[in-house]
Every structure is written in C-alpha cells, then in structure tokens.
Fold this sequence. Notes:
Layout: H1 12-26, E1 60-61, E2 68-69, E3 77-81, H2 82-87, E4 103-107, E5 114-118, E6 134-138, E7 141-143, E8 156-163, E9 177-183, E10 191-199, E11 203-213, E12 218-229, E13 233-235, E14 240-242, E15 245-259, E16 262-275, E17 281-284, H3 287-295, E18 308-309, E19 316-331, E20 335-353, E21 363-381, E22 387-408, H4 412-423, H5 444-462, E23 473-498, E24 501-522, H6 531-541, H7 552-556, H8 560-570, E25 601-618, E26 621-632, E27 635-636, H9 664-667, E28 681-682, E29 685-698, E30 701-713, E31 716-720, E32 725-729, E33 732-747, E34 750-765, E35 785-796, E36 802-816, E37 836-849, E38 854-861, E39 869-874, E40 882-886, E41 891-899
Parallel strand pairs: 6-9, 13-18
Antiparallel strand pairs: 1-2, 3-8, 4-5, 6-7, 8-9, 10-11, 10-41, 11-12, 12-15, 13-14, 15-16, 16-19, 17-40, 19-20, 20-21, 21-22, 22-23, 23-24, 24-25, 25-26, 26-29, 27-28, 29-30, 30-33, 31-32, 33-34, 34-35, 35-36, 36-37, 37-38, 38-41, 39-40
Helix pairs in contact: 3-4, 4-5
Amino acid sequence: MRSISAGSAGSYRFTLLAGAAAFAVAMPGAALAQDNSVLADSDDADELTLEDDDSSNVIIVTASKREQTLQDTPIAVSVTSGETLEAAQIRDVLDLQTVTPSLRVSQLQSSSNTTFIIRGFGNGANNFGIEPSVGVFIDNVFRSRSAGALNDLANVQRIEVLNGPQSTLFGKNASAGVISVVTRPPQFEWGGSIEAVYGNFDQIFLKGDITGPITDTVAFSVDGSYQQRDGFGEIVNLDTDIADRDRYTLRGQILAEPTPDISIRLIADYSELDEICCQVATLVTGPTTLDAITAVGGQAAPGPFEDQNFLNIAPVNIAENYGFSGQIDWNLGSISVTSITAYRELDNFFNQDIDFTSADLSNETRSQDVNTFTQEFRITSDFDGPINFLLGAFYFDESIEQDSFLTIGEDFRDFASFVAASTGFYSAIGAPELIGASIPGLPPAAQIAAGEAALFDAEAALGFPAGSILGGGLLSNEFYSLDNEAFSIFGTVDFEPFDGLTLTAGFNYTDDSKDFVIQTTAGDPLAQINVVDTFITGATAANPALPLVTTRDEFLALPPEVQAALSAAALDAASNPLLGLAGLQFQTGFLDVPNAVEPGETNDDDFTYLLRASYEVVPEVNVYFSYATGFKASSVNLSRDSRPTVDDFTPGPVNSTFLAPSSAITDAGLATVNLSNGTRIAGPEEAEVFELGLKAQFDGVGFNLALFDQTIEDFQSFVFGGLGFTLENAGEQSVRGFEFDATVTAIDGLVLTFAVTHLDPLFDSFPDSILGDLSGARPGGIPSWSIATSATHTHEWDSGTRLITRVDYNHESNVDLNNGLPTFNLPPFNNDTIFRREVDLVNGSITLALNNGFEVGAFVRNLFDDRFISTVFDGVAQGGTVNGYPSDPRTYGGVVRFKF
C-alpha cells in the first residue's frame, strides 16, 4: 500500500498477517524478547550461557543495572539479541523498529539526522541544541546526539529498549526512554567471524571480528564493518544517485582480569560516513513552484514514489564519530563498584540544496563539532538480607561548536523578480512565502524583466549597488556554541519484606547548566533596512519643518500628532512603496547572545523518583506496579530561527524599531534592524508514568503485558514552518496504552513472536503552537497500533547443519503524519488536506549453516515493495508546495558468512 493522504485504515495483507499473528498469541503464554537465546551481562564480561538447559526462553538483561532475567525485571523492556539481528538481516538502526513496535526511528534531511521515538515521544535530531528525549547508550556510554549513535550494528550482543522515563538508573536522564546497545566483550578463547553481503542497488556489506587471549588475564577483540550501496533515487539533472550508503566502522577492545574480582574493559572506536542524502518527493506543487521555479529554468521532484530528484547540487553528508571508554568492575563480595569513563568526538558536516529544485536558489552548509566527556560511578550491593541498593553518580561535560551558512544562488534574484512582478511589487506583501498568481498574458521572461527593473529602482532609491539585492553571496553567516555541564546522583533501594514481594524506591537529583553563544549576520543588503523606519527617515529628511529621524528616541521626541501621521503613511502601501520589499527580506533581525538582557545561559535542577512494588505470584509469573517521574533539562535553539522571547522584546508593525513598544531589549537600545520575537529556549520537560505490568515464563512459552499512562509536561516541540524552525514547550502531552509481547516455541524448531503496542496520545494543553491551539487534539505521527511479529524455523540435521528460515512482519496503523502544516494548512492557502501514513512491511531470510562454521543465505526486506511517506513539510520559500521523505523500496541480496 502506498499511503500519503486520507485512506483506508488497513489492507487485505494486514488482515491476513495479523490473523496469523493472533493465532500465535492465542496459544498460552509468551515472552517479551525477540529471541530464544539466553544472554549474559556484558558488564561482567561473561560469555553467553544458558541459565537452565530446560528453559530456552530465559533471557538475562541489565535494564535495571543488575544482571536479572527478563521475567524478574520489573521494567517495560524489549530485548533484541544479536542472533535476531543476524537472522533478520538488520544492519542499520533504521531497521530496528521492525522488531520493536514501541520504537520508531526516522531519518530526515541528512544521514546524521535520525530521531528515536518511544511511545510517541522523541525529538532533537535536527538541532544540536536540543537533547534527545530518548537516550542512546552504547556499552553504558551516553551518546548525546543521534549522529554519534549511527554505527552499523556490528558485533552486537543485544539491544534493550526501555520504555518510559529512566531517571533512577541512568545518570543523564531521558524523559521518554532509553536504547541500550550491548556489544560482545573480548573472549579468552580464539574465535571470530567474517561476513559478506551483495544485494540490489549494488549493495556491498562486509563485516568481521576476531577475539582471543593475549595472556591468561588479558583478552582482545577487533571488529569492523564496511557498507556501500548505490542510491535509491536519482538526481536527474545531475545524473547522480541519492540516498546511498558509504560508511565504515572500526573498534578495538581490551579486557583485563588481573584478579577474579577485577575486570577492566577498554574500548576505542572510529566510524565515518560520506553519503548523498536524503531523497525528497514533491506531494503538492504550489503556484510558486509551477510558475517562478519554472520561469528561472528549474524543475521540482515529481510524485512521491518516482524516486527522481531535481537539485542544483548533490547534498554532501560527512560524519566522523570516534572515542574511547574504560569500564572497571571491582567485586568486593557483597558490594561491587563500577567506574565508566568516556570521551567522544563527533564531527558532522552537510551541504544541501534546501529548496529541493534544480533552480539555484539557496543552499545550506553546517559544520558541527561535539566533544563529550562522561564519568559514572556505581556502587551495587548483593546482600543476603532483605535490603539491597544501587547508588550512582554521573558527570557530563560537553562542548558544541557550529558554523552555518545560507547562500544566495544565481537564480534567486530572477526568482524574486518574477514573484515581485506577479504579486504587484509596490503593494504590501502579507505572506513571506511570496505566493501570487502570474500576471495574465505576461510571459515569464517579461515578468522577470519587470521585477528586475523594480529591483534596480529600489536599489537606486536606497543607495545600494545595482544588482546587490539577492544578487549572490551569503543570506546569513552564523556561529553557535554551547557548553553543557551536568551532574546527577541517582540510586535505588530494594526491600523484600517476605519472599516474593519487592518494594523499590529510587531517586535522581540532576543539576544541569548550559552556556551558549549565538552570532549571526544577515548578508543581503536589503536585510540592513527596515521598510517602515527607512520611509520615516526619508520623509523627515524631505521635510525641512521636521528634524531628521534616524533612531527610535528621535522618533519618540516628535509631537504625538506627527508620530501618528508618519506612522500612518509608513504603513500605507499607497504612500510607502518600500512595503513591497518586506517579502524579500528572508533572513533579517538577528540579535547576538549573550547580551545585556539575555545572558545566554540556563540553569536547571530537578529531583525525580520511582516507587514500585513487584510480586512473584508463582515462580513463573511476576506482576509489578510503578510510578516514576523523569526530567530533561532546557534545550536551546541553535539556529538562525532563534529570536528573543516575547517577554524580552516586542517589535513594531513590519518589525519596525521606531514603532516598537517599550520592552527590555528595546529600552536597552539592543534592538537590531527588523528584529522579531520568537523563542531561544524551551524549558525543561517533566515526565511521569503509571505502569502496571505482568510477566510470565513457562517452558517454551512466555508473555509480558504493560499498561501505562504517561505524561510529559512542557514537551519540547520543534516544528518546521516553511522558512524556519520553532522551538517551544507544549503545555502537556500524554499517552495511554499497552504493550504486549509474546514468544512461543510452538513445535520443536519453530519460534513464533508477537509484539503489539497500542497508543492513545493527546495534547492535554498546547494553546500556543505554531498551528494554533492544539489542546485536546491527537498528536500527529503516532499510530494507534504497532505490530511486530515473526516466525523462525530451524531444521537441524544429525550432522549439526541447520537450515534457518525467518519471516517477520511490521505494521503501523494509518495515522495523520502531523497536525497540519504552518503554510499549506493555514492562510493564505487554507488547504484542509492532512497527509497520512500506513506501514506494512514483510521481510524474510533463509540461511544454511553448515557444521563447519560456513553459512550461506539470502534475504529480502520490504518484500511487497510497500512505500509510504515518513513525514511532510512545507516547501522552502514555495508556499503551497508540500515535500516529503519517501520510505525505502524493496531490497534483497545474498549472504556468505564464516564463524570460527
């Protein structure tokens, strides 16, 4: 099914596959994991072991920072083992969601712009000033930006997805959940593997690892991967692929065990990607694209799944991510101590055509550097008595620097001239998108010439060089930096008054401080004037009876009746021909931070806590109830769309400084030309969740069920509005629902899994969104139903050779992609179309594993080539145009693997 707008809520294929999955669930019992392996905690460098030879569905996890079975862990956590990743041919974090229905992963704009969403909550990928609501930890090390968590999934032991706030267990709290990736530690026996994949789109994927002893107490491992693939799409006018893959990773580890009670694990890794991303489709073509873009010789991408693009440059995405960590575990008997020290660097660069047409209008360049140091200490008890505890401290120190440029292309002036002529250059332009119908009967070349002549006249009148307005160079030049220092103290206490009942209390105190710098310059000469203030200055200069007015103070010194007359004339298009220029001022009104009013800092602290009761009804069944709170510190809008808040500044009409009312920034004399207000900072998020869970595990059968009611107050919303991004706090967003996950070994060799998440989200309060009052509305992009189900059959011959066949299915019910678009759905267009998405993905694989370690197989992902649009956005400076990001087409290939 290819769903981009309102359509049916399901499909025939969904009915058939969901029915098959329901048959699996109808069997008694189940388990939350995606695999029937038993996994050991890599923190203690244990090898994979079976806990009970007769209990093949028992899984060991460390979601609670302790080694526990999945059944005994009173947290809503789903586990995907390395074996499942291998069998399902999952090599990219984007595909992880196909086996974890509570998780959604989306990649937008660039290869390094990936957003993780749990239970409908997630943000932060497109702006490095916004911390993600979903925290990603790799081998217990926090990856603060998603661009630093995009390594190919090589040598993974398991991935744990923890749903809901996790403040009492993770020092850098994530208000929506945690993704914890655990890799295999070095082993004291020689072993390793090598794998090669070739698939359609000329996909080549190579990975390998080797591990073994250096001495009796020191072991090592080295692993790496390389992935290259042609693009899914084509930039037609440049004859270049887009949406390709070109990345590699390298990692080395040392494990030292000088005594039986001390373990030291050192990890160093490096990864790099250099890709052309991402593919954009045009869903609706607005009048500007039809007329103005065509008039300057440009073309836009065709329909949503044509996989064709028209761009003036091929986008460049380069990211280098590297670092090291050291973990020390010291067992003192009933007390164990853990120390984790890490330092990481991320260098991220991209250059992109932001109008997504072949017309040379504007390109954006970003160069971002992130340096992060973290230190964690934990003390954990293992007493025989009724009380045990975990106490930890976490320190986080990060610096971010970003240089950004927005350029004016060679076609921009002709584009603006065409629009200026078609809208009536000497009339006030009410919408910055510059939309207007073409002048009837006037050829495009004549419209461009008319607009060009008007621009020449404006340049002469303003004293600008001919051709300087939107004539080339930089639209904006920006520098941002952010220093973030945070520390937290966290812990839990477990009290077992009698066998089977465990009462848990946990806490986290976090103190978070940010200092930021924003320095931005508007490059176009037109940005240096305000059309109202310039008219008033000119009018007073031409009237000998009036003093020359060049500042707000001079204007306010005029008699009130003169002020009123000048204001009326300046705001009247018939009197002030400069008003028509306002629509051509794309990037204006920047105020550097810090300044005398805005200190450029945030200081947050919060105490969060957990209360939980868990009870073992019988050895096979556990139940729990918990109440937890969570916290995420303030975020900063590190972009050219950062503006003073309404509390600090109020502009005058058409962003006039002369006509601006009194405000802190105005009264301090800080207001720059054309300054407007908006947002700089979004305040902290505060989360709470009530959760009731049941976990059961029987021979070959198990299941988990979690019912939850989760709320985030002041959720940090980051929305694109056609020309820029708005960062603001939603008053309150909540979600109620349940998660059910089951594993059934139906017959010998056949394992069935079924996982379903149901979400009922709500904007409890969001009165000031960019789309108006959304209070009481359902947040877009959050499907009611998400399903992940699989069937894995292993046939084993007496020789030990195995044939492993797997089919899995991922479904997301039909859902509105968003709550509307600020341009397309609001004036002047008022289009009521809401675009929708439904996901139905079927994947399959077959592997022949010989008893000598050699394996050969084949796979297909998205078997039925179902395509959907993952998200939509207003066309940049092309009001009425809607763009979107299409999903991947069908991929398939063959695998050769050797394990030794």
